Amino acid sequence: METIVEKSLEEQFEEKIANEIRIEPKDWMPEQYRKTLVRQISQHAHSEIVGMLPEGNWITRAPSLKRKAILLSKVQDEAGHGLYLYSAAETLGTSRDQMINDLHSGKAKYSSIFNYPTLSWADIGAIGWLVDGAAIMNQVPLCRTSYGPYARAMVRVCKEESFHQRQGFEIMMSLCNGAPAQKQMAQEAFNRWWWPTLMMFGPKDEESPNTEQSMRWKIKRFTNDELRQRFVDMMVPQAEFLGLTVPDKDLKWNEAKNGYDFGDVDWEEFWNVVKGNGPCNKDRINARVKAHEEGAWVREAALAHAQKRAQREAADQAK
Amino acid sequence: MSHQKEWPLWEVFIRSKQGLDHKHVGSLHAADAEMAIQNARDVYTRRMEGVSIWVVESRNIHASNPDESAAFFDPANDKVYRHPTFYEVPAEIKNM
Ligand SMILES: [Fe+2]
Ligand SMILES: [Fe+2]
Description:
The complex is a heterodimer of chains A (319) and B (96).
Chain A (H helix, E strand, L loop, with lengths): L8 H10 L12 H20 L1 H5 L8 H26 L5 H10 L15 H22 L5 H29 L3 H20 L11 H6 L7 H19 L9 E3 L4 E3 L5 H11 L3 H14 L1 H23 L1
Antiparallel strand pairs in A: 1-2
Helix pairs in contact in A: 2-4, 4-7, 6-7, 6-8, 6-10
Chain B lengths: L8 E7 L6 E8 L3 H12 L7 E6 L11 H5 L23
Antiparallel strand pairs in B: 1-2, 1-3
Bound molecules: fe (ii) ion (2 copies).
The site of one fe (ii) ion (FE2) has 6 residues of chain A, from helix 4 and helix 7.
């Protein structure tokens, strides 16, 4: 007879991670794994929701009905992404109210990119092309993240993302093929969004203390710097195709590493925006809080209506 | 600030096309079943992913316990004879 060695919960968990078996909500998991996921997933959800604001700013001013319908549809997708992610976080024991409170109080963070303003229509093109492009770069590996509900949410998100990037690229292409003033608009938007987009991958590896543990737990599959490098390598040829100049004087092809060398991100600016001092941090949170508070009566009324109907049904059945 | 009371959580199941099973796709909050179905349509079928939606309030779902799953599913472990591959069919026999 074989001897049965009782494995500790921790060992069983580590074994699943090693064997690429997804962790599901009711499985035992280390407290720190749970905490890391709640933080990362809720932060991700908040980014989708706050991310609707800079683009929503242009829905009423889109240059044609077609562009308006497309933008509306994209922003609606982002609301859906927020919902998938909030739901995934809720399976870990946090509540929607808790997460929303944390966003509104400033305790929870969201991607710093959404604290920049959208000054012209070209910014909508630049966001779709660059920001959604970076989001895809981040999100595709997350489809294989070790926590089941998060991975499944990301599969759904990724399916919807590629239209976002393409519609942005198409806007940029139209502008770049247009009048010189339109081309210039595109270049200026590119200049505004390029560096903040590179910041989306997060701090440098040596300044990202959580990365190592997250990689061990297979929450993350690539480091911030790896993803940033891939993104630059992917985008430079696209910018060249559009006839746009990457606003980085240090950008240079490096044959040896088969990738581009590029300049250092302004990390001071990054940390400053993260700390709440970006151009739009206050506006963004104020807009969220306002929407939430002004919607309170709707949520209460819907609940009261549902309760009333349930009572009526119960009374009818008792007859 | 007003007192907070969350809408209940619902699990959403979608039949992607006629003839297939409903499959779990995710969850959402809604005040009642009707709203849950409408929200599910808006969130989970924006690209014609479904022809039918079921919603079930999450608290009504009972699940097996993952901690006991080894013992719970054990009875099926040693019953290889439940699979057709357990049986030897002579090469001469066709269509079985
Ligand atoms: Fe998104
Ligand atoms: Fe997107």
